[in-house]
């Protein structure tokens, strides 16, 4: 991982070389959560925390597959997707300190969920969900106890990478149309 200035000049490197599939910078800019492919198997992904000062790398998850980390606005938690024993890819939350086990937030009924953005007030999580009928859609999970997810955008296109705007009035996203 390489830090660049706005002109493209290399400012420094972080962590060791490897195959990274997701990178999420902490809100305070002091840490980065990455999903790294295992060099032993070339398939297994786990999340790793890279602290900048002092430089340190710590394994964050120990599952068959973890990816797409999203930081809480206050930097205290990480939401990510991980494979469950039944083969689904569910949403989990874990303290950024790694002090406790991951907590299941949402079980997938369609096979795969991926978090994309956490609202700045900390109340909502935006996520992508695979739908056999409408491909990849966006949903919102209220993070209050016993809340259920609600569809946000379901079309015939693949909606990806949804992000709340800073004022939380808008959602930016990418869309892919396939035939």
How would you describe the overall organization of this protein?
The protein has 179 residues and is mostly beta strands. The protein has no helices and 16 strands. The protein has strands at 2-4, 10-13, 20-25, 31-37, 45-51, 56-59, 66-71, 77-83, 89-95, 103-106, 113-118, 124-131, 135-142, 150-153, 158-164, 171-176.
Concise account of the structure shown:
The chain has 179 residues and is mainly β. Helix content is 0%, strand content 53%. The N and C termini lie far apart (36 Å).
Major sheet size, sense and barrel closure: 4 strands, antiparallel
- How do the strands of the widest beta sheet line up side by side? 3-4-5-6
Percentage of β-strand residues: over 45%
Give the helices and strands as they follow along the chain: EEEEEEEEEEEEEEEE
Secondary-structure-based class equals mainly beta
Give the radius of gyration.
Answer: 17 Å
Please, how many helices? 0
Low-confidence stretches: none
Topology diagram in text:
Blueprint: E1 2-4, E2 10-13, E3 20-25, E4 31-37, E5 45-51, E6 56-59, E7 66-71, E8 77-83, E9 89-95, E10 103-106, E11 113-118, E12 124-131, E13 135-142, E14 150-153, E15 158-164, E16 171-176
Antiparallel strand pairs: 1-2, 3-4, 4-5, 5-6, 7-8, 8-9, 9-10, 11-12, 12-13, 13-14, 15-16
Structural descriptors:
mainly beta, single chain, 179 residues
